[in-house]
Amino acid sequence: MKTTLEHIIILFSGDSGDGMQLTGTQFSDTSARMGNDIATFPDYPSEIRAPSGSVFGVSGFQVHIGAREIYTPGDQPDVLVAMNPAALKVKLPLLKKGATIIINDDAFDRSGFKKAGYEVSSLEAIGELKNFKLIHAPITSQTERALEAIDLDNKSKRRCKNFYALGLCYFIFSRDPNLTKAWIREKFEGKDALVNANIAALEAGYHFGETIEASISIYQIPEAPLEKGTYRQINGNTGIAWGLMQAAEASGLDLFIGSYPITPATDILQELSKHAGFGVRTFQAEDEIAAICAAIGASFSGALAVTTTSGPGLALKSEALNLAVMLELPLVVINVQRGGPSTGLPTKTEQADLLQVFYGRNGESPVIVLAASRPGDTFAMAFEAARLSLQHMTPVVLLSDGFIANGSEPWRIPDLREEYHHIPIHLAQASEEDFKPYNRNLQLVRPWAIPGTEGMQHRIGGLEKDFETGDVSYDPENQEKMVEVRAKKVSMVASNIPEQQVEGKTHGQLLVISWGGTYGAVRTAVKRLQVQGHEISLVHLTYLNPFPKNLGPLIANFKQVLIPELNKGQLLRIINAQFHCEAKGYHKVQGLPFTISELITAFEKELKLVEYAKQ
Amino acid sequence: MKTTLEHIIILFSGDSGDGMQLTGTQFSDTSARMGNDIATFPDYPSEIRAPSGSVFGVSGFQVHIGAREIYTPGDQPDVLVAMNPAALKVKLPLLKKGATIIINDDAFDRSGFKKAGYEVSSLEAIGELKNFKLIHAPITSQTERALEAIDLDNKSKRRCKNFYALGLCYFIFSRDPNLTKAWIREKFEGKDALVNANIAALEAGYHFGETIEASISIYQIPEAPLEKGTYRQINGNTGIAWGLMQAAEASGLDLFIGSYPITPATDILQELSKHAGFGVRTFQAEDEIAAICAAIGASFSGALAVTTTSGPGLALKSEALNLAVMLELPLVVINVQRGGPSTGLPTKTEQADLLQVFYGRNGESPVIVLAASRPGDTFAMAFEAARLSLQHMTPVVLLSDGFIANGSEPWRIPDLREEYHHIPIHLAQASEEDFKPYNRNLQLVRPWAIPGTEGMQHRIGGLEKDFETGDVSYDPENQEKMVEVRAKKVSMVASNIPEQQVEGKTHGQLLVISWGGTYGAVRTAVKRLQVQGHEISLVHLTYLNPFPKNLGPLIANFKQVLIPELNKGQLLRIINAQFHCEAKGYHKVQGLPFTISELITAFEKELKLVEYAKQ
Amino acid sequence: MQSNSEKLSAKDFATDQAIRWCPGCGDYAILNSVKKVLSTLGKRKEDVVFISGIGCSSRFPYYVDTYGMHSIHGRAVAIATGTKVHNPLLSVWAITGDGDGLAIGGNHFIHALRRNININILIFNNEIYGLTKGQYSPTSQLGQRTKTSPLGTIEKPFDPAMLALGAGATFFARTTASDPKHLQEILLRAEAHCGTSVVEIYQNCVIFNDEAFEQFLGKENRDDHSVVLQHGKPLVFGKGLDKAVQWGHHELLVSTALDTAVIHDEQNLSLSFLLARLETVKPLGVYRCVQEAEYASNMDDGVKKESRKQVSELLHSGSTWEIE
Amino acid sequence: MQSNSEKLSAKDFATDQAIRWCPGCGDYAILNSVKKVLSTLGKRKEDVVFISGIGCSSRFPYYVDTYGMHSIHGRAVAIATGTKVHNPLLSVWAITGDGDGLAIGGNHFIHALRRNININILIFNNEIYGLTKGQYSPTSQLGQRTKTSPLGTIEKPFDPAMLALGAGATFFARTTASDPKHLQEILLRAEAHCGTSVVEIYQNCVIFNDEAFEQFLGKENRDDHSVVLQHGKPLVFGKGLDKAVQWGHHELLVSTALDTAVIHDEQNLSLSFLLARLETVKPLGVYRCVQEAEYASNMDDGVKKESRKQVSELLHSGSTWEIE
Ligand SMILES: Cc1ncc(C[n+]2csc(CCOP(=O)(O)OP(=O)(O)O)c2C)c(N)n1
Ligand SMILES: Cc1ncc(C[n+]2csc(CCOP(=O)(O)OP(=O)(O)O)c2C)c(N)n1
Ligand code: SF4
Ligand code: SF4
Ligand SMILES: [Mg+2]
Ligand SMILES: [Mg+2]
Fold it and tell me: Could you tell me the CATH number of the domain that includes residue C86?
């Protein structure tokens, strides 16, 4: 009998060489195509290739699938696929109590336990396992057997074992294996042996499921009520790359990216480097400073210019970013946050670059700041960053993080002609009699006169300039005026962005304010409490500087504000200073996303305090 | 008859080539030696050599002398020496109403007016001059005449005219010309013609004063009640250089400075480059990044390591500063602030790097932050920066600014054996059995094990490290612990710094909180209002992170807090966020210091509002 | 990008800004020569971009009526790279000093040369930091006393020619602000070269390093201590044309044997490198000029190879599915 | 700084850290060789410092039981400079990769060479960014396809030897992780040299750029496509020792005329430079080694010249006055 589930979290884990990323991707692709909503998160080892079977070589891929909207890859897996003892050791502490563990028995031999650093050498000796449901499958040996007839060396055969595991999971979770079969045929086209081997392994795993059906539970997860449309999987880095490309198309400009590789931002550069055919010029610079400087240079000559990086790289770019603020040229800076400070935990996630983005430059130097919330909104946010930068002639920093960058979700492909069709740019009019480079319009935006345009030659630079003429000026009052005008220009962007939406009532006891990649977890936690009848609402910010106009009034509508962040209270400091309020923070700096349950606990505690204070 | 004055402000101004800096320095030196307190501020043109007689070639030197303690070079000069029309044009707007102007008549010819960009070509045509007392002196021609007998070319003779002007001022302000004569003899030793010429010019000017005595006012300024001791003039940059040298001596370490020239910090490097004999190693690096990195490397091998810079340079150093935070090595960073953002107004002053210093790094990265207040406290503050860095094994940023850096004051030379004699350092004990580089003491400070020390080899780095062993660690909980421990270590510095002093009552209506180079002006303004009976007190912060322990309670004792800053409210944001208060700001970003009068106006206004709110 | 409308004169390239260099500064001569050359080339103002860093020399863009940017210290070349790569049709000039270009900007300098991007880099070399008032630079002489080396420096200077050649330069020339005619010739050559052109210009800083080049270029010395390089011509010099550069044992020497004089060859890398090592005589002119693949046009070709694609195609490519 | 106590073995220099390079990575061989050389030199652990940047190669210091710092990307040489200048008695090694040392760290590299600071710079050159998983580096081959150059790069690589020589290197050597014996010889030479020693080590990245050096160093090729440099010895090579490097017209050629083989001379800059330009054969060994003034010891001499002064003297020097 099949049990129907609302949602389930499955974690595939094994050695780096075991193909777990592929297995996870196939599982989630198939699920998405079957109409589930999904969210996924890969967790690579930080070594390129760790010794096989060791705990730091464990590679994991978590998939959350549901019959309703899914916002996070999930806290605690319901099912673990453990290809070897190291995977079991590393992932066991994460599982939900009572979870199911699919064990590749063949790998749990004496040497396997030893490589994983286990002191014991049998599963029975691991006491905690009593709390879990184990499904034993001789994955490696069964795969070999299933592939006996195929003309392939043994090593290659063994490498098919991930498809065996996948087949087994397909059976258990009632997935259609045909989509993966089609994928295998396409992927290995022309290599018949590989096609046959992988399909055979997949089928063998599926059949093994049928064989043991009586002794295990089988699940199905109905379709989720998703919006109609064409969907595809997207991860955060790809979404950003494509959003920028669309912004270039919509503004009629060519895209220029100056970048220097750095985890977890490198993929954006890599993705864009494939798209010269879309007019994209990728410049891999000698360092981060050259990267942003080349982007500034390209912006000067009329490109939609972008630079991408992560925290340490942003630190290096700060002097040049400040120049861009002074020049008032469009520039999009993408910062994909990772664990800090310094080199920190480069492959982990964190939200601790916010203050750096706000304040990490000498002098008074305001920039527009946006943040993406999930893989599925990166396309839109990258487009938005470019739009605001072009319309307001000033740098925009878009924050993402390692969690968003590598996570992926099904994404409804928008109709670009409707939603993302046109960004008007602020080109100087050739007709202007007496062209002045810093002659502002009502939004305080200066005109963009691009080299090659006749009659508009002008000089710009990092020294303070005269409000009227744009020439260098050392005049004291002019400086004050210019500092103010740059600040005001950025604050006026508030009229060009949507009002802040509230999830829940617009007033009440507790307002949770979040930003960035914590959205899924925070939203889920808030919704659960709302369902329980608590007076809790959520404001998830995507516009951080300037804030939406209605943020101040919203804050005033609540008894208490709580700001959960993956840092030690950075948005908290900004909100408290700006709105003179006494918001509290909830913080975690472990390189890991929030779990829903810890947030619920924190919110409940805060709700109680508010209740208590009322009495 | 001589009028006795409490204090007076004199501004010497002329062309870059007119020797005004020298004249001003002599005048202030003589005054200091005569027992006055003084404060001075030079104002160079931003061009190296502007066209002679032009307004952007004007060089000024302001001296404030008094029979009481002097805290600032003063707002509005009482006396202007104008060597040419350009000087008059630039400086006239700054003068106090009714001020005296000493005019070098010879330079006010048609060509002089023209070079200055005056439309008129005679003094009479300048209407505003009616409000001032003019003393006409044919300085150039009289100097030539006085030097007729001396065997020197005409150009050299004309260059003595600044001593003529100085002589005249000495007469008017009853200064003893002999000190300057002695100086001239020493300076030009062996060049008799020059000695004679300059002395002759000085005397001629003095005698000219006697000649016109009947028609002008003569002043005397009695001695100020200064603390007993040996005094010298000191400017902010020199004070910092010497304070660092003393810290090296007091800690038994050699001083290493890695730096890259940048206005207005370059002088510190230049000063230190003279002192190899004190064990100082000056490394002029290829850029700011190399400068701080070399300092980190030197710190690793056991130096008292320093890097000096200004805003744009600090931006470049941020990634490496973050490394020093992670390494937990001593490092002193001196940031002499200038007008921003970007290249901004490099020769002007500002306080707008505070937020950059606090937050300009990726991740959670706390540093100790101090600020100097006046040229006379730079020695002490530089010593203090080094002390805290060595005792707490973490970077300290000391903020100064262009105003402090170039300003000078008489400074009582401290008895180094008493006040600055010893900084204990936290060397690893050779006896330690099982040396661990991150084994902290009760202040959470790790031991310093210097290469060359047997048995203590260890590796440090920018990746997160295990709390126990110091080895690289990717453990989530360990990261949180380390982020917290670094923050706590810095906050514990509060126990190793003095409590905050209050100037005035410790509670009342209005608390003014200031920091950095605005001290003189703010203090003077507050004192004046206190004398008038207002309930206003001053907290001038020199320790900015962590704040002194009693700051929070102090703030709570006042109805209102007002924070004047030469930025758009940077300390204000920090104080409001940290103490959940609603302090107000008073801001100016003009590259200029506050004037006392504008502060008084602002404080009075605020006092009235507080009064009003009470009713 | 030349237009057919009437030709501009050097004066037409002047701006209304007051020039703020010290009287007597070598920068004036360079400014005049550049304006002259722009008019000779028949450049339209709008097609030319000057990008500088920070330094006395870097104020240059304010004084030329083309597009210009006075950027931040050391980054002129990096910024110019972006400007050129985005629009290869522009004539892009990076203006830098020995500090701006070779101290803080050293990395961008060597990487631009490696990539061979078609910009002109003019290094105003006065062997000192001018704007910050007299500290030693990476081209200051070993032992030179400056504000930060009161006892003389202990570091050997770069030879910009050697550094450039080591980084893969396809064009390097050395000239002097004191000889505008030669300077202009060289500027014309630099602009004609397709690839990164480095022109090192000796420029006298009258205030902080006066007469730095007297030894080679002073009126008295220049005939006997400088030699003008001309491709295919023998390296003969001296007041009486009595000296010649000779091949020694894998180094260059100076002697009076005119008929064995080295024949200059701009494509002989080894010769170019050794010319930079001559100690008593300073070669002026084009040390090296070779044609190699150029970066910006290659990038442009990549972009223009196929007809422009639309992002919507990309979004719908690969694996998609419908939800109805 | 050698001590007289018992000599340490290579093993004594190991740490307890698990080594995290990919199986088969060239870095292992370098690690072993360095430990070996330290023991051969009789170094005391406490007198040796390894400073690295970021990259696979830069994990090196964790694995050697001396003082060490794993710093930030590109800055190893700048940090090592400070360490050495403050204490010239230490043996200081900067460990860097082709990305770390020549991309982001390029400026520190050339300036260290100019100053000639007595540190050893080991460049682990795998012609790729390893740690960030396979983007091209400044030494990747023109046209190489990598994750950021799907159609092949359009930039010519640096030759580290030419770059180093152009910057004024007093010691440059090239060797390979695949020949530990040669590698160790070279490391000994590098440490013996007083001045900045650059050792470029070809290091195979099995994951992202496998067999990058096969053309010159593969089993099949190495005899005919590499030549070992030995000072004073003719440059003869080949399976049957049948090939020799010859002087051509100011460039080097390969022929079979053994008796006119070039005699290697580590002090002949022009030869060193031309060796780096050979295309079909890769010279391994010390390209250049000359003695010049060294920075750290000169600085030290300046500091130690006179007896140490006290700050109180300074405060009371010059113009002071009494207030009573
Ligand atoms: C980031 C930064 N560091 C330092 C400076 C200070 N600075 C301005 S120009 C300059 C050196 C100028 O020397 P050079 O490039 O030779 O130009 P010159 O003035 O001699 O023409 C320095 C160090 C700065 N403006 N910005
Ligand atoms: C400031 C900064 N920029 C970028 C990075 C990302 N990063 C780390 S290592 C590396 C390149 C490594 O290449 P290489 O030096 O050749 O070392 P390898 O891994 O090949 O040994 C890069 C780009 C970083 N850590 N810090
Ligand atoms: S300081 Fe030197 S380089 Fe600068 S403008 Fe004056 S003379 Fe020219
Ligand atoms: S990725 Fe390459 S360089 Fe890095 S450890 Fe693996 S094999 Fe070595
Ligand atoms: Mg210069
Ligand atoms: Mg590499």
Answer: 3.40.50.970
| pLDDT for the residue numbered A452 | 96
In whole angstroms, give the CA distance from residue A24 to residue A406: 13
Average pLDDT over residues C68-94: 98
Higher per-residue pLDDT: B256 or B51: B256
CB count within 10 Å of CB B153 equals 9
DSSP symbol at B413: P
Probe ligand 1: pick from B48, B49, B262, max atoms within 8 Å of CB? B262
Q: What is the pLDDT of residue B43?
A: 85
Which residues are CB-neighbours of B609 under 8 A, at least 6 positions away? B560
Single out the residue of B133, B182, B135, B180 nearest to residue B23, CA to CA.
B180
Q: Is the CB of D130 under 6 A from ligand 4?
A: yes
In a domain, D167, yes or no: yes
Domains B232-412 and B508-614 share a fold: yes
Residues C95-132 pLDDT 10s: 999 999 999 999 999 999 999 999 999 999 999 999 99
Nearest CA residue ID for atom 1, ligand 3: C130
Which ligand is nearest the CA of D103, by number?
A: 2
Answer whether CATH 3.40.50.970 is correct for domain A232-412.
yes
CB B119 within 8 A of CB B89: no
Q: Where are the domains of chain A?
A: 2-220, 232-412, 508-614
Would you say residue B97 has pLDDT above 50? yes
Concatenate the DSSP letters of all residues of D53-71 into one string: -SSSGGGGGGGBSSEEEE-
DSSP, collapsed to helix, strand or coil, labels residue C255 as strand
What domain range is D8 assigned to?
1-212
| Each residue's pLDDT tens digit, A213-244 | 888 889 999 998 889 999 999 999 999 999 99
Let me know: does D53 contact D88? Beta carbons within 8 Å. no
Answer whether the bond into residue A42 is a cis peptide, omega within 30°. Answer: no
Q: Which residue in C has a C-alpha nearest to residue A304's C-alpha?
A: C86
Predicted confidence (pLDDT) per residue in C28-74, tens digit? 999 999 999 999 999 999 999 999 999 999 999 999 999 999 999 99
Neighbours of A230 (CB within 10 A): 15
Report the alpha-carbon distance of residue A163 to residue A197 in Å, rounded.
9
Q: Which tokens in the block code for residue D186? A: 């070279």
Q: What distances in angstroms separate CA B33 from CA A96, B9, B81, B560, one per listed residue?
A: 81, 17, 22, 42
Q: Say whether C138 and D111 touch across the interface (CB within 8 A).
A: yes
Binned at pLDDT 50, 70 and 90, residue A430 comes out as low
List strands edge to edge, sheet with B255-259.
B281-284, B255-259, B304-309, B331-337, B395-401, B368-371, B543-545
Establish if D278 belongs to a structural domain. Answer: no
Provide CB contacts within 8 A for B42, sequence distance 6+. B21, B24, B59, B60, B61, B62, B406, B407
Fill in the DSSP letter of residue B480: H
Structure tokens at C289: 């000029």
Question: What's the confidence (pLDDT) of residue A47?
Answer: 72
Question: Quick one: closest CA in C to D270, which residue?
Answer: C250
Chain A residues close to B356, C-beta within 8 Å: 359-362
C244 lies in some domain: no
When divided into structural domains, chain D yields a total of 1
CATH level 3 topology of B508-614: Rossmann fold (3.40.50)
Give chain B's mean pLDDT.
94
User: Is the domain covering A2-220 a CATH 3.40.920.10 domain?
Assistant: yes
Query: Within a domain: residue C271?
Result: no
Taking the C-alpha atoms of C134, C136, C138 and C142 in order, what is their torsion angle to the nearest 10 degrees?
140
Residues A600, A605, A610: CA angle, nearest 5 degrees = 125
Mode of pairing for the β-strands spanning A58-66 and A7-15: antiparallel
**pTM beyond 0.90, yes or no:** yes
